[in-house]
Design brief:
Shape: globular
Radius of gyration: 16 Å
CATH topology: Spore Coat Polysaccharide Biosynthesis Protein SpsA, Chain A
CATH superfamily: Spore Coat Polysaccharide Biosynthesis Protein SpsA, Chain A
Distance between the termini: 48 Å
Protein name: Glycosyl transferase
Helix content: 40-55%
CATH class: Alpha Beta
Oligomer: single chain
Order of helices and strands: HEHEHEHEEHEHEHHEH
InterPro entries: Nucleotide-diphossugar_trans (IPR029044)
CATH architecture: Alpha-Beta Complex
Length: 186
């Protein structure tokens, strides 16, 4: 049984495309991309796409240096169709996945078809009163979803947050430090 699982994992490797939107988030982009390096080495991440909203900083240089596809003008339907992976990971620049996420995502995409989000990092929570009555943005803890489902939902002019909104998702055990932590230090 374990051998079958390993074969399935190897088959699924390289099957994840990471997509982010940015605007003047050079340092946040670099933080998120640095966490993805080990996933690329493991064969999980096949490509990273950065969708820009008119950045005037070095965001394009950071994306280029990391080997990402960088688009200044784009339509979400074209981006999704061009994604190399069969699964998509939508994240915000500045968010950072915590240890163990690679193995969990590899297992999840091998065995599931439903979208999923990462768990909030326990050490990085908003103060209690700031959490009360606050709607959590759709990408605060990322979104892992099948490419086929994303293409079916996408409409021209749509952004990633709108694409992720309203999805019924499973919750992964792996934690994500949200992007607002990096932005607060800025």
């Amino acid at each position: 049984m374990f051998l079958v699982f390993l074969v399935a994992m190897r088959y699924m490797s390289g099957m994840l495309t990471v997509i982010m939107e940015c605007r003047d988030q050079e340092s946040e982009l670099a933080q998120t991309l640095s966490v993805l390096v080990s996933a690329a080495v493991e064969g999980l991440v096949s490509d990273v796409v950065v969708l820009d909203h008119g950045s005037r900083d070095g965001s394009s240089s950071v994306a280029d240096a990391a080997g990402c596809r960088f688009y200044g003008h784009w339509d979400i339907k074209d981006i999704l169709r061009g994604a190399r992976g069969e699964w998509l990971l939508l994240v915000e620049p500045g968010s950072r996945l915590q240890g163990g996420w690679i193995d969990e995502v590899m297992e999840y995409i091998a065995l599931n078809k439903q979208p999923a989000r990462f768990a909030p990092a326990r050490n990085y929570r908003r103060p209690f009163f700031k959490r009360l009555g606050r709607a959590v943005p759709p990408l605060e803890y990322g979104m892992l979803l099948p490419k086929r489902q994303a293409i079916a939902l996408a409409k021209s002019g749509m952004d990633l947050e709108t694409l992720a909104r309203g999805q019924k998702v499973a919750k992964l055990a792996s934690e994500m430090i949200p992007a607002w932590v990096a932005a607060a230090v800025r």
